[in-house]
Design a protein that fits this description.
- The complex is a heterodimer.
- By secondary structure, chain A is α+β, with helices and mostly antiparallel strands.
- Helices cover 28% and strands 24% of the residues of chain A.
- In chain A, helix 6 links the parallel strand 16 and strand 17.
- In chain A, helix 12 packs parallel to helix 13 and helix 14 packs across helix 16.
- By secondary structure, chain B is of the alpha+beta class.
- In chain B, strand 11 and strand 12 form a beta hairpin.
- The N and C termini of chain B lie far apart (75 Å).
- Classes of the chains: A alpha+beta, B alpha+beta.
- Chains A and B meet through helix 17 of A and helix 10 of B.
């Protein structure tokens, strides 16, 4: 560690100007007039009129404007940019700009939204028949909240215009996404646009779509002024206006016969925010994972993403999966308790296994390692023993609980996207000095991909690691090997590099310049994915995880001490053990934040309320002093050295494990949302014990309903203790 | 051009303070959250007069620029453990290395971590100002005048104290009182680096089965730390049982909902903690009574 890394904020270029953004203060309004203060000659205004080609940013669709023209759709929508040599002067001038708005009625609740951005259905089997024949039918609704990526370095870029091309550089995950958006916005040829990634201080998905937005704004400003223009968001601006995890509502209706789940009918609603951005793909991953790791012979899944007048939600580690895996794991646990069974035992009886059908009529082609992971989790955490012991606690101030969840993460892009859209290409360039440069577009954003790429290539070529060069990607130099997303970089691009290196080794001639190119081949075993029907192999393979959380609840304050946490992971084979451990621990911690403290809410006027690290609380190491993460080996035949996707998975299963533990400690019935804060705990402990039963979405088993007994009795028969105080 | 100053002694610091518009700067951990480019700072940490910890017969005397870390590591004076508990809950090591007890007081945030303890322990603050009439007197001590006032009087509201612009807080005085039971609780959204949602300090002394002293202080539930002598006296006198005391605090406290927590949560936690503390105090007092009876 030498401290030599230069972030975009550190970069100075001759003639550099700064750009500061004017954000909408209204959630939904028509712009009637823009009133500017008198501007010094050094300051330039940039707005929609300056966009040379298309005033929409290409992400998946092209609906988000670069600069709002007539309408603003959320508090934070960008109306214009002031460009000049002095940032403080720009801030002062921005505060004097007056916008006349004509307000429209904003929509903040996706349930109330009439604008459905995406609507998907899929399923299989005889769902109605399964419900008709069920012994029990359970239904419940779950909610998950917003989450901010909280990368250390805020978003920031520089646009540099030259006579021949536009160069945009800075903090990003996906140089070619940024390039495609710029080509469309500027109406330039591909070779006239260059995108360079600089050292990037974390992304977690938050630098998947947003850099395309800022890049278009800055490139328009650079074109107009003819000077390089830089914008690095400040922390509050970044937290208040850039993408976050989609809030969700998941409704589950589950049929149980002879003690096993026979059908699931699932309805998922995600809050897209003001524009579509990445919502279709987030929703797809979410609904594909909705039945969890369980065999569900009869399945019906409906998913929607609807518009609200809030910050557009986008990518965040897990990408739709944390929402639905939370819901299905809680649902399975609740059913087990209602059936007077131990949750893990109930779940373990219906796990998918190799050769079984996936939720989308694909196949689990490879070993499903969950039984092994469960065994390891048991050895480390003594889950079953503790679960039983904690069921016999007194109603004292402090009470313990332990919870466990089972999840998978589908590795790489959903469906056929790698084959049909990404078509990844990598190159290896051998120099005359026999050093080998890796040419791939994947960005090291702190996850260590430079190290793992270099290790793969060095090992294949049997040359020392320091003979491998991996620079930050520059679209003028590297082919498009796809974005840095979806836990794909190592598994998919790393495999291409391994193949390229193997080829280079065969033709290696010392002292000679050589270049090898390798192109993506869709694995032959994969059942083609039908995007209309959601049928086929959604993913080439799956990583698996068991998460265990043990906690001690202070019932006077509603706060919980996490006394133990265990994450057991199957990422195939770790290429770099320390990097994978770092990912697993960091992801687990992010999952804990999602579970209990990362509360982010909008004011009634649509303004995000927690926009600093003082108010938006992410966990520290002190919150989970005893975190244990462990790996098993389960080599993937089509990944480099057996590696599968790793980065996103550790985040996915933590929330249901935490909440199951909290439920046991609270001993106060079912919990159904995250984050479940200390405020929520006291609220629930102090609540009328019958409150849950008074909610419209009741917890009813069909038999008992038919017998005419009130639902409250069903719930207490299901193991919940009505004595909540 | 902005000047900042690093005086060598208190007298020089006070003269600089009187002369111009300078902002006293102890640890800087609150000031630097919102740094002002045009501010002129008066650095205080190097002043020997403000960095001492000592004890007299009646008081613990803590210099205003003593850091939390100093308090936690010093071995000279046997400081009240409940104060040290609060210091351990402040932020994280970098802030504890810089932040000072005097700064915590002068910042006058209702969420100041040590304030409920200092309120409960009846701390006073000593303020110094320079007397211009004595400019030419060689004995510099003679040129400084002091006033002493209870902390509860010194802090007047959110970020509001009655320190005059030419005054410096020099020392915090904590009466040496033997308590038989103390408790400090900081409730925050995470275990470190957090601003409290609620904080509580209870201190009680019992003798021969009689409750002789009681102090109950609540942080982050009002514009200043909340302490109510009438309720405390009523409990001491036996006019209030636990239920009546809790009810009295329920009526007294006026917490708000903000971006960190809710009014309802803050109220419930305060009442839970005060009920819990009083229950422990009464249990201890009763067991003391039994011992005395034998």
């Amino acid at each position: 560690m030498r401290g030599e890394a230069l972030y975009v904020d550190d970069l100075l270029i001759d003639g550099l100007l700064y750009g500061r953004l004017l954000h909408s203060e209204r959630p939904h309004a028509r712009i009637l007039a823009v009133r500017l203060p008198s501007l010094p000659p050094t300051v330039t205004v940039v707005d929609w009129q300056d966009v040379p080609a298309q005033n929409q940013i290409h992400i998946v669709q092209d609906d988000m404007p670069i600069f709002a023209k007539d309408e603003v759709e959320y508090v934070g929508d960008v109306i214009l940019m002031l460009v000049g040599p002095d940032e403080q002067q720009l801030e002062d001038l921005l505060s004097q700009v007056r916008i006349d708005y004509q307000d429209h009625e904003p929509v903040f609740d996706p349930e109330q939204s009439q604008q459905i951005f995406f609507d998907y259905h899929y399923g299989h089997g005889e769902v109605e028949q399964a419900f008709a024949e069920a012994d029990h039918i359970f239904s419940e609704t779950f909610h998950t909240g917003l989450q901010e990526q909280a990368y250390l370095e805020p978003n920031g870029l520089i646009a540099v215009p030259t006579t021949r091309k536009m160069t945009v550089r800075g903090s990003m995950q996906c140089p070619y996404y940024v390039k495609t958006a710029l080509v469309k916005a500027l109406g330039k040829a591909a070779e006239q646009v260059q995108v360079v990634q600089d050292v990037t201080g974390g992304g977690f998905g938050g630098k998947e779509d947003y850099p395309s937005v800022l890049a278009c704004q800055l490139a328009v400003a650079a074109l107009k002024t003819g000077k390089p223009v830089k914008c690095v968001l400040n922390r509050r601006e970044d937290m208040a206006t850039t993408s976050k995890r989609h809030p969700s509502r998941c409704h589950y209706k589950v049929a149980v016969k002879d003690g096993l789940v026979t059908a699931m009918d699932i309805d998922v609603l995600m809050d897209s925010g003001a524009y579509t951005t990445l919502s279709p793909v987030v929703l797809q991953r979410g609904i594909i994972g909705a039945p969890g790791v369980y065999n569900t012979a009869n399945l019906r899944v409906h998913g929607q993403a609807r518009k609200t007048n809030t910050v557009p939600n986008g990518a965040f580690r897990g990408f739709g999966a944390p929402q639905t895996f939370f819901a299905v794991e809680m649902m399975m646990s609740h059913i087990a308790v209602a059936l007077k069974q131990e949750p893990l035992a109930f779940k373990a009886r219906q796990l998918v296994a190799q050769g079984d059908m996936t939720s989308t009529e694909g196949r689990y082609h490879f070993n499903v390692s969950l039984p092994e992971l469960i065994q390891r989790a048991e050895e480390l955490s003594h889950y079953r023993e503790k679960r039983q012991a904690y069921a016999r606690q007194s109603e004292a101030r402090y009470r313990k609980g332990i919870g466990l969840s089972l999840i998978y993460h589908g590795c790489g892009f959903t469906g056929n996207s790698e084959r049909d859209f990404i078509k990844a290409v990598v190159k290896l360039k051998k120099r005359r000095d026999d050093r080998v440069e890796v040419l791939a577009s994947n960005a090291d954003i702190g996850q260590g991909i430079k190290t793992t790429f270099a290790k793969i290539v060095a090992d294949q070529l049997a040359i020392p690691l320091d003979q491998i060069i991996v620079n930050n990607p520059d679209t003028d130099l590297v082919p498009d090997s796809g974005p840095t997303v979806a836990s794909r970089s190592l598994m998919t691009v790393g495999q291409l590099l391994a193949q390229a290196a193997a080829k280079l080794k065969q033709v290696w001639e010392p002292g000679k310049e050589q270049e090898i190119e390798e192109q993506y081949q869709h694995p032959e075993y994969m059942i083609p994915f039908d995007m209309e029907r959601f049928a086929g192999d959604a993913y080439p393979t799956y990583s698996w995880a068991v998460s265990v959380v043990e906690l001690e609840l202070d019932r006077l304050t509603g706060t919980a001490d996490i006394s133990g946490a265990w994450g057991i992971f199957d990422v195939g084979v770790p290429i770099d053990y320390n990097i994978v451990q770092g990912q697993m621990q960091g992801g687990f911690l992010q999952g804990l934040g999602y579970s209990c403290m990362e509360h982010l809410a909008y004011s009634p006027a649509g303004v995000p309320q927690q926009t600093s690290f003082t108010d938006y609380i992410i966990p520290t190491a002190a919150d989970v002093p005893n975190l244990v993460t462990d790996l098993i080996n389960n080599p993937f035949s089509h990944g480099p050295y057996g590696a599968k996707g790793a980065g996103e998975m550790p985040m996915v299963g933590v929330a249901p494990a935490y909440l199951e533990a909290l439920e046991q400690a609270m001993n106060c019935g079912r919990l159904e949302h995250v984050p479940f804060t200390a405020e929520d705990v006291l609220d629930r402990l102090g609540a009328d014990p019958d409150r849950q039963q008074a909610e419209p979405d009741t917890w009813v088993s069909r038999e008992r309903k038919a017998a005419g007994k009130p639902a409250a009795q069903v719930k207490s028969a299901g193991g919940g203790d009505p004595a909540c105080r | 051009m902005v000047n900042s100053y690093a005086p060598e002694n208190l007298s020089e610091a006070l003269r600089l303070l009187q002369a111009g518009k300078v902002t006293p700067y102890a640890g800087g951990t609150d000031i630097m959250v919102h740094p002002r480019a045009a501010a002129s700072y008066l650095f205080l940490r190097q002043l020997p007069e403000l960095g001492q910890i000592s004890a007299t017969e009646q008081f613990y005397v803590i210099g205003s620029t003593v850091t939390y870390q100093d308090l936690l590591t010093q071995t000279k004076v046997d400081l009240p453990d409940v104060l040290l508990q609060a210091c351990r809950k402040v932020a994280a090591p970098p802030i504890r290395n810089l932040g000072t007890l005097g700064g915590n007081i002068c910042n006058a945030s209702p969420a100041g971590d040590t304030l409920p303890v200092l309120y409960a322990l009846d701390a006073s603050v000593r303020l110094a100002r320079f007397e211009p009439a004595s400019v030419n007197v060689k004995d510099t001590d003679g040129s400084i005048s002091y006033r002493l006032l209870p902390l509860r009087q010194f802090i007047q509201g959110v970020r509001r104290t009655c320190r005059q612009p030419d005054e410096l807080l020099t020392e915090i005085l904590i009466p040496k009182v033997r308590y038989t039971l103390t408790e400090y609780e900081k409730i925050a959204a995470r275990k470190a680096q957090a601003i409290s949602k609620v904080s509580f300090c209870g201190a009680a002394a019992a003798e021969a089965g009689q409750l002789t002293r009681l102090a109950l202080a609540f942080g982050s539930v009002g514009v200043t730390v909340v302490r109510d002598s009438q309720i405390e006296t009523a409990i001491l006198n036996g006019d209030y049982d636990i239920a009546a005391a809790v009810k009295a605090y329920d009526q007294l406290l006026r917490p708000i909902t903000d971006q960190r927590s809710t009014a309802g949560y803050r109220r419930t936690v305060c009442l839970n903690l005060v009920r819990n503390f009083l229950t422990a105090v009464l249990a201890q007092t009763r067991s003391g009574a039994q011992v005395t009876d034998q």
